[in-house]
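pasting for the record
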Amino acid sequence: MERSGGAGRRRPSSTATASWSGGRARRRLSPSGAALRRKVRELRRLVPGGEEAPARSLLVRTADYIVRLRTRVELLRALSALYDELPRHDDGTGAGA
């Protein structure tokens, strides 16, 4: 007994494109699509290499960029804490200079 996926069992393609967020992405992001296009345009401007990235890989690039930024922030915080621990001298030398 063979089962075939009949037309009644298929999802519309618009549901499939929004499946990454449980099928709610289109309704939540923009009823008209204009807001989504603005957001994608803004991401392209903010993310290095985003201008030439295809839309599908733009989100991956954005996620990678966020991870890199977080790593930089952690490094700068660690350096700042280390700098704060250095001995300070009132004569204009050392970390307090």
